[in-house]
Amino acid sequence: MANKDPLERAKQTLEKLQGENAALQKQIEAGSALEADYEKVVARQQKAANKYEALLMRVGDKHSKVHRVAVDLGGGSIAQVSTELLNWGIRALGRWSKDGVVAQNVDILQGAPHFVLGLGLYIAEMATRKDPADNNGELPSTTREVVSEATKLFAQLGFSSLARAIRVRYADGKQEQIDHAALAAEYRELQKKYLELQAKSGTGGR
User: What does pTM read for this prediction?
Assistant: First the structure.
């Protein structure tokens, strides 16, 4: 019994030390995991901050004076030039057709196709444009902005020409009705005078 006591005590001490060592190891592992999690959080925050900073720089570039002038002038020039070229082609086709359908509707054709085509392209561009929130903050390219501006102005120019053509046709139609009514009244007056003269001529003959 006397010989076993020291051995037993040594064994118990060893087991106790092993238990404390295991608990310490767990604490160290937990601390390492916590540190790793903290580093991951810091890395994510840094990545988000970098992305936000880059987004702010892109937004700033998109709203700079140089960028806005480039988009506005680029889109406006494309819309104006394409409108003039298309109208020139329609007028040439109208002259070629002489009294055909195109010649009779040159004014309408210089507005309606532009409005329909421009509006359709503008809607298509906006419908296919990705939302920055769903595209990692990516903003539309300068090319897409120029195309959007050009199609919008192209449609507006077409609508303006179409409205003017309809207004002129309405005014011409109204004036034609007035002229027709005046001619009809003049015809009735002349007919009345003719009948009066004819009546007088017949009476004088008797």
Answer: 0.57
